[in-house]
Amino acid sequence: MSSLEPILNAAKACYLRMGVAKTTAADIACEAGISRATLYRRFPSHNDIFQAVLARDSWEMIEACEKALLGIDDPAEHVIEGILYVLDEIVRRPLHAHLFSESNGSWALSQTMAAENLHDMCVQMLLAMPGLRAGSDPTTETRIAFMGEWILRILTSYAIVPSHIARNRDEMRELLYTTLEPAIRALFVSADLKQANVKSIR
């Protein structure tokens, strides 16, 4: 077990018991059985602790999501079903449900968008699909990064404030296909063309 795990476990316990806004570094240190000085040697700020806790639990959710999506090769379907899966899981998981409640929404949004590791998760989900490869073309890499941020913003926004138009899973799926599918297909077409051009040059 990582030396950071006890601290992350302590922080998670405090968040669930007292709420994010009321939890202090002193609370986390006390829960972990360490001094605040030791805590700050591991994490420079409370924001860093929050982002680490959220990233750890989010990785667990993403791994479960990827298993659920096995066999879905169509890029748009893969991404959209992944978003739907994660939105459902956020409600089911106590930490995520608490963090993305409307009372914590604005703080959770700013922290989530500032966390590079959460953006990296979205990018890795894209790169795991057939048709996209990292490191081959700067333009494609930039577009993948843009798409990763857009997906993260979609997840965060709808987790905090659910749609008043798409009121169930099927309607949410239709909303995502209407708005997101064209961009996903354009990204993959662009990547395919780049790869085809590289092959023709060779």
Keywords:
Arc Repressor Mutant, subunit A, single chain, 11 helices, mainly alpha, 0% strand, 202 residues
Structural features, described:
With 202 residues, the protein is mainly α. The protein folds into two domains: 1-44, Homeodomain-like (Arc Repressor Mutant, subunit A), CATH 1.10.10.60; 53-201. The chain has eleven helices and no strands. It has helices at residues 5-18, 25-32, 36-42, 46-68, 75-92, 94-99, 105-114, 116-127, 138-160, 169-179, 181-201. The longest helix has 23 residues, at 46-68. It is globular. Mean pLDDT is 86; it is low at 196-202.
Write the layout of secondary structure elements.
Elements: H1 5-18, H2 25-32, H3 36-42, H4 46-68, H5 75-92, H6 94-99, H7 105-114, H8 116-127, H9 138-160, H10 169-179, H11 181-201
Helix pairs in contact: 1-2, 1-4, 4-5, 4-8, 5-9, 5-10, 5-11, 7-9, 8-9, 9-11
What's the short story on this structure?
This protein is mainly α and 202 residues long. The chain has eleven helices and no strands.
Tally of alpha and pi helices: 11
Largest sheet: none
Structural class: mainly alpha
Estimated radius of gyration = 19 Å
When the domains are counted, the total is: 2
